[in-house]
Amino acid sequence: MSLPSLETLFVKPAILLRDLFPESARPWVSIGIAIGAIAAVAPLIMMYLTWIERKLIARMQNRFGPTRVGVYGLLQPMADGLKMLIKEDIAPQGADRLLHAMAPILAVAPAILLFAVLPFGRYLIAADLNVGLLYFFAISSISAYAIFMGGWASRSKFSILGAMRGVAQVISYEVPGVLSAVVVIMIAGTMSTVGIVEAQAQRWFIATPWGFVAGIIFFLSGVAEVNRTPFDMPEAESELVAGFHTEYSGMKFALWYMAEFLEAFAVCAFAVTFFLGGWQGPAVPFWVLTVLGSALIATARKLSLPVRVVATALLLAAGLVWIKEPIPSWMWFLAKTYALVFVLVWLRGTFPRLRVDQLMGLAWKFLLPMALINILAAGLWWFWRDSFIGWFLSAAILALSYWLLILANHPARRFEAALSSRG
Amino acid sequence: MAFIGAGVLRGMGVTFRTFLETYPWGRVLLRGLRQPAVEGLVTIEYPDVKQKHAERFRYFPFLVYDGTPDNLRCVSCKICEQECPPQCIYITGPAKDEQGRPQKANGRTFPVEFKIDVSICMSCRICVDVCPFDAIEMDNQYELSSSERFGSLILNKQELLKPNEYFQRIKPTEASEVDARLAAKRPKPQPVFPPKAP
């Protein structure tokens, strides 16, 4: 048996495993393998997302972040998970116990379901639905139910306030989010996530005027939909204790967090799929990556020497084994997704929380009209796609409407002043 | 005119610069871009790395002795006990024999017990200032935590006693000043006469 190529590193074993079963059972087995892989990987992604976030945000605040549990604090997520598991599970008096227990499960389930249509690589997708994009929006908006269910069942002022804010926010940001993705459907001509990625083979959508704007709107509304800073109104610590999950403890609380982080990861992954070319990437040789990685590990001062030597040797050996291959598609996808995760943390590290009216204003008065105008811009770009006119027209329309919308959103005085000084 | 939304990007630039400044390669990158780059991480990872203190850093008093531990400078005059603002010094003494006459060691009275409560001491150094005998000085040891409140947090005489050489080692400047002062105070050695009968 020869070594599988990097591209099919995960697909080959799955096929081999499936072929162990009789012909009639194979469709079910392959479904089972996909579900099993997602169920195993999703908690791992979530745990290390917390670690990544804490490390990055600490660096942005001149701190170290977790360092005590394991080298570089790498075992911190395990310690946190263990702590959450053994903590007491408290439901407040007067709470609706059934809904209170159901809400976190309802929050996590759609977050994991989202992974089904994510094309992690050229052959790595659990279910290539022909309505993948629609599926994403349908599933991700279930979290509004979960938030309100949790807030309502807790029978607490803070929870219900947070839940109400959360529902208002999630529903509001759904609108610009969907409208910004409309241009992707228009240009790609398909709603399948694989089809959308393949449509970006020539040019990533982010590199067009309408794609740039739609990408930013999509990402911002995604950040708002998963309730992350600066849009974390539902759990605003400084005013609502912890918002909709104030009354949750132990593993239920951990489930809320898991839902939030998984959805954050999914939003980044879908932004990559829709706008950043998905698993497409330039054909950089794989050994370049291994050399860079081994240099990084060899200079990591806190790792013990044997670990550094073995890891460096293994990486270099991997580079030698697959010396002729380019960086595989799934690595490109993960790299882009984590780059967006970095942006997510970066936003959190930079901006203070928005006020409720500012939050709603941003969605309805800025992102929504911008997304609508963007559809027009994308249409123009497509109509004159072979010439310079389409680029120019769409860029000009978007820049002008950006400027006008910003002015219109400012207090009226400034808008009129700007108009009169130019007219 | 700066374009609208520039402030948002500038803010993100500030955060990113801070991020870069915490890594050595980030600082190299910033200097390569002709940007000022200072060491971003100011944290001292305490149990692994300890802060370098100035010589005059003080935390908690100790009792000085010369040579042997029974030759301590304290005469149990209790001025420090009186002056201590948070009242954390407890002195029993001076030591007396059965008839109630003060006992002496090396020509001085001495305390039976001398206790200082670590958890109450506020490191003000007033005890050192008021001591006429330079018998009490400030230590720079600060790792005195304990899991029990009334056991090891109240340091007794044995725990407080430290030699003058230790004082010389931790605070050379101050210790030599004290030594000079004590040497000036000490009477010139005189011929020893047997005590006259009264």
What does this structure look like?
The complex is a heterodimer of chains A (423) and B (198). With 423 residues, chain A is mainly alpha-helical. Chain A folds into two domains: 78-284 and 326-422, no CATH class; 286-321. Chain A has 17 helices and no strands. In chain A, helix 2 crosses helix 11 (250-275), helix 2 packs parallel to helix 14 (329-350) and helix 9 packs antiparallel against helix 11. Chain A is globular, with a radius of gyration of 23 Å. The model of chain B has no long low-confidence stretch (mean pLDDT 85). Chain B has seven helices and six strands. Chain B is elongated and about 100 Å long. With 198 residues, chain B is α+β, with helices and mostly antiparallel strands. Chain B has helices at residues 6-21, 24-32, 79-83, 126-130, 157-160, 164-170, 172-185; strands at 60-65, 89-92, 113-117, 136-139, 154-155, 161-163. In chain B, the strands form two sheets. Chain B has a three-stranded mixed β-sheet. A three-stranded antiparallel β-sheet of chain B has the order 2-3-5. Chain B folds into two domains: 13-42, no CATH class; 60-184, Alpha-Beta Plaits (2-Layer Sandwich). In chain B, helix 1 crosses helix 2 (24-32). Classes of the chains: A mainly alpha (423), B alpha+beta (198). At the A-B interface, helix 2, helix 14 and helix 16 of A face helix 1 of B.
